[in-house]
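Table S2 (text version). Query chain:
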Amino acid sequence: MKTSLFIAIILVSGAIAGTVHGLVNLALVEPYLDTAIGIENQNLFDSGEEQDTPEFWANYNSYRIWQKGGQILAGAILGTSMGALFGIVYALSKNVLPGSSPAKKALFLSLLMWATLYIIPFAKYPANPPTVGDPETIILRQTLYLAFSAISGLGAVGFYQIYKKTSKKAIAFAGYAIFIAAVFFAMPQNPDPVEIDSGLLVGFRVTSAIGMSVFWASVALVLGALWAKLNLDQTYQKKYQ
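Corresponding structure-token output:
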């Protein structure tokens, strides 16, 4: 397999999946963001920090249009980086992944990475709309989330090594479950109280989770399809036989 072809495939897969993620967010998440920001704007008007003027709304609408348009590009960029990680992990582990085709193997891997890198951290530190949280704690909140994601991912890698070396595979799964449960309860709570309409909060979190789930499914399906289309497994075997 040519290195350039492999790199092209994983980057394209990530970019496509990231673009899909951006489009899903634009359709599902943005309405909740509009509502949340509307509440924030009203609070600014009530406090006197801003004035409810045509000039304010002209600047606001211009910024939101730019922000929404840039979301698709941002999704493609983020997707490219995550797709590269996914592609590398897939190439290193495809021989031990269950499944009769590259797409099935990639979907199984994406399920594992979705769970360890997104769902588990999300359960501890769920996404919140802009009106939730003190701006002064945003760095702390981001650090906690990223730290938990890294611990979960590295823990999965460590127990995968145990999985490969032991005949009792359940030991590895049980070990990871105990490990991540301990980390879950040891990590500090989100420092900011959640004071927002529950419907808005739940809707934002659910649609955010749908968007990320679509990304992980998309990157697996695109990578698997390209891998099979270009017959990369056979190419790899021919090169090293």
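Notes on Table S2: The CA atoms of residues 21 and 211 lie 6 Å apart. Helices lie at 3-28, 30-47, 54-93, 102-124, 138-165, 169-186, 198-229, 232-240.
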